[in-house]
């Protein structure tokens, strides 16, 4: 690079475009999940050597899923990891670092995973980056290629940059999901309170207390009790 040349690193321009698009999508009211998928597709086409990309999620209960993927191979690899409970994406998510597989044919760190992937897909090179998610769930951003040794140092550098920005997008998605859940719960609790007030001629405080007691007695979340009350009330009309 010549003195005074402040051009972006390889792929940097595409990254800026992707981020601008992400911000624009969110500003225009596009669902965060859709904005995240846009970012993943941009990542797959921008990281040198990458053919496919995806996000692996390990939720609070330890369930492993593919929450965003550009190709079926990414989903298949996550299914394999779920079955054998090992793999580079899980190692990246669990151990908080970057995992690079140059050639799965000769990499014996995850023997069960390796055997299944070689049998079911042509993927040979993998680069996985841990995402710093909020809460107790774990996640990794993954890039895949059919050619061995597909990911050089510039690919790892670009992958790390995309992982940082995907973390921001991912946490935005999670907060939006939590907000929707909270809003939905509030609405159904309000409906249930209204039904109880009308049925038993009680005020809002007493109706809420009744729901709370039912929740405690049944050891069930308050929103679930409210859903049952609403469902039974609708069935009886």
Automatic annotation (TrEMBL):
Domain (ANTAR) ranges: 169-230
UniProt keyword Transcription regulation, yes or no: yes
Entry keywords, A to Z: Kinase, Transcription, Transcription regulation, Transferase
Protein name: GAF and ANTAR domain-containing protein
Source organism, top-level taxon: Bacteria
InterPro entries in alphabetical order: ANTAR, CheY-like_superfamily, GAF, GAF-like_dom_sf, GAF_ANTAR, WH-like_DNA-bd_sf
Keyword hit for Cell membrane: no
């Amino acid at each position: 690079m010549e003195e005074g040349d402040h051009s972006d690193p390889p792929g940097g321009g595409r990254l800026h475009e992707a981020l601008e698009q992400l911000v624009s999508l969110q500003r225009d009211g596009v669902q965060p999940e859709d904005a995240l998928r846009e970012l993943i597709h941009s990542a797959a086409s921008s990281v040198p050597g990458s053919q496919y990309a995806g996000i692996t999620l390990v939720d609070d209960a330890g369930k492993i899923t593919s929450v965003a993927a550009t190709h079926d191979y990414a989903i298949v690899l996550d299914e394999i990891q779920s079955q054998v409970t090992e793999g580079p994406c899980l190692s990246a998510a669990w151990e908080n670092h970057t995992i690079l597989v140059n050639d799965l044919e000769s990499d014996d760190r995850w023997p069960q995973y390796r055997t299944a992937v070689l049998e079911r897909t042509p993927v040979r090179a993998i680069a996985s980056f841990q995402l710093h998610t909020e809460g107790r769930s774990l996640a990794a951003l993954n890039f895949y290629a059919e050619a061995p040794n597909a990911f050089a140092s510039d690919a790892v550098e670009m992958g790390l940059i995309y992982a940082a920005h995907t973390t921001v997008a991912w946490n935005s998605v999670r907060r939006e999901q939590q907000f929707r859940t909270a809003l939905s719960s509030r609405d159904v609790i309000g409906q249930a309170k209204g039904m109880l007030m009308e049925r038993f001629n009680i005020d809002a405080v007493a109706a809420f207390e009744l729901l709370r007691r039912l929740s405690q007695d049944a050891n069930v979340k308050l929103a679930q009790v409210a859903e049952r009350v609403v469902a039974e009330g609708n069935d009886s009309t």
